[in-house]
Amino acid sequence: MQFRTQIPISKSNNPIDYNSKILSIGSCFAENMAEKFDYFKFQNEINPFGIIFNSVSIEKLFKRVCKEELFEEKDVFFHNERWHSFEVHSDLSNSDRQELLETLNKAVTETHKKLKEATHIIITLGTSWIYRNMESDEVVANCHKVPQKQFSKELLSVDEIQKSIQNTIESIEALSPNINFIFTISPVRHIKDGFVENQLSKSHLFTALHQVLKTHNSKLKTHNYFPSYEIMMDELRDYRFYNEDMLHPNQIAIDYIWKLFSENYISQDSFSLMLEVDEIQKSLLHRSFNPESDQHQKFLAKLQQKISILENKISHIKF
């Protein structure tokens, strides 16, 4: 007997392997999946401009990266003793203006290079709600705790989201025509916007994204959709799969969603290597009651041998 519904997932025609180079962009759920890629030692770059929730801000950043348009002094501002940019997350903010500009421009040039080399890009959309700076009339990626009165809060229309996703794809494909796209919608509910408003926001993302995929997938190239939101809402329909805030997936949920992702989007040839990496990672976490014992020294020697063999086998893997 089946006691839950299972979401059907189509296998990727261009699965990820240890030769793949992955760029992950988007909401905090993108970070959850990137941590898994990092754990298993895949070649993955995550959110070089910090967490970005909305499609318009993602579009603006990729246009900048693809054209290598560097940040200038006019693109940053001073608030609460730190310099910020409305285009990026506050994690990149700095007390020194020049250091911030150097950090941002290094991110632009390095992301441009990585995007040209990337085989796969994973874009995780979080919300349709955006904040618009009323002075510049620009959508911001982060408000940086600037007073609320300086922004208008808006819900992006389906057409606006569709256009921004389409523009993002076109910008990236102009630079990296053979890249494989994987889109997903974050399973994190943005309840601070309101319960009804969160559902409305997600529905706009679904409608816009699937309209774009329908258009693109009628051509020769297929862009994949991974149903992380559907898995969380349907297969894991229980609050025991949430963190204490009852909004974010807990580690059990993340592990389960990763399992389904890896079964369908990672090459089967990579599974044996993933098992080797997993065994080493668990061994590295092992803490001995007697670190000086012969038994533990033999354990460490054997572990180092396993690491050396794997690092020699796959040059980019480092522990």
Automatic annotation (TrEMBL):
Domain GSCFA residue range list: 21-261
Domain of life, per lineage: Bacteria
InterPro entries, alphabetized: GSCFA, SGNH_hydro_sf
A Pfam family the protein falls into: GSCFA
Name by which UniProt lists this protein: GSCFA domain-containing protein
Source organism per UniProt: Flavobacterium chungbukense
